[in-house]
Amino acid sequence: MVTPVMRTVDLRSDTVTKPTESMRSAMANAEVDDDVLGNDPTAVLLEREVAEIAGKEAAMFVPSGTMGNLISVLVHCDERGSEVILGDDSHIHIYENGGVSSLGGVHPRTVKNEEDGTMEISSIEAAVRSPKGDLHYPVTKLICLENTQANCGGRCLPIEYIDKVGVLAKKHGLKLHIDGARIFNASVALGVPVKRIVQAADSVSICLSKGIGAPVGSVIVGSKSFITKARWLRKTLGGGMRQIGVLCAAALVALRENVAKLEDDHKKAKILAEGLNRIERLRVNVAAVETNIIYIDLPEDPKFGAEDACKSLEILGVLVIPQTTFRIRIVLHHQISDSDSDYVLSCFEKLFSSVPEEKA
């Protein structure tokens, strides 16, 4: 019998963070105007700051990473029926409602994501379909990467790899977009500035509400002409908002205060992963824990899978989500303390020492 407790530790995602007091203060005092008319000063400040961080000419705030990726794909794939190459385990392909197809008429061509989050360069090149090729096929216009790669465990794509994909894209006259939902995590883990990581990319979607804990929004960056087209699409998709300085003010605080906290999140994730891997019936690929995401593999017991484990942990106040039938995902963030991590580990130990092992 699992005894319920009052303590709650929410590890479902790094999107569950609450605005800090400094964020709330900044939101309350934000200087605002109508952003659809291009006049919100706090939005302009945020966009300039993110463009500088990414080393790109211009930037635009959007309500979500999904919208940021969708707009980016549609700007690059500006003819219906054109094709985007992306990972078979990528966020754009799996978790964004098929928007590139349903709203943009863009055909996704998937390439296998390796365990480290990359796609084989040769496989990407083999997937490219030229306008001079067979008329039965769609024409490739874009390659998408994801950094960090969430479904591969928050793995960081190496700079050398991204550069090679950039060279390949140019060779075939294609554009390169990076889904940088957790690009700050990658930057901290690799010890390299964001602008260097995304140097080869034509556009990047940078989430503000994941690793760095802003309450809402993403920013997409690229050339001035890219952002001009992106603003038209944002309006078409219903993403034009008015006094968004209230949201952008919190994002500026997140940029200035929380990027420095990511290293600590990564250390906590590694320590927790090592502890979980010591539990006899659990398996964690500790070497794959490079940032703030942990995947825990459970015994393949048909009577007690990941959903059952998550429900039992919830009774103890630990909130996590099932990734597959026998895999659980944990995501660390800046509002998780050392004490929280210790408590989570103790709950897993308690749970998996009380679940009888299935007999062959």
Automatic annotation (TrEMBL):
It holds the Pfam family Beta_elim_lyase. This is low-specificity L-threonine aldolase. Its cofactor is pyridoxal 5'-phosphate. One of its GO terms (molecular function) is threonine aldolase activity. Keywords: Coiled coil, Lyase, Pyridoxal phosphate. Pathway: Amino-acid degradation; L-threonine degradation via aldolase pathway; acetaldehyde and glycine from L-threonine: step 1/1. Residues 252-279 form a coiled coil. It comes from Eruca vesicaria subsp. sativa (Garden rocket). InterPro entries: ArAA_b-elim_lyase/Thr_aldolase, Low_specificity_L-TA-like, PyrdxlP-dep_Trfase, PyrdxlP-dep_Trfase_major, PyrdxlP-dep_Trfase_small. Its EC number is 4.1.2.48. It comes from the Eukaryota. Belongs to the threonine aldolase family.
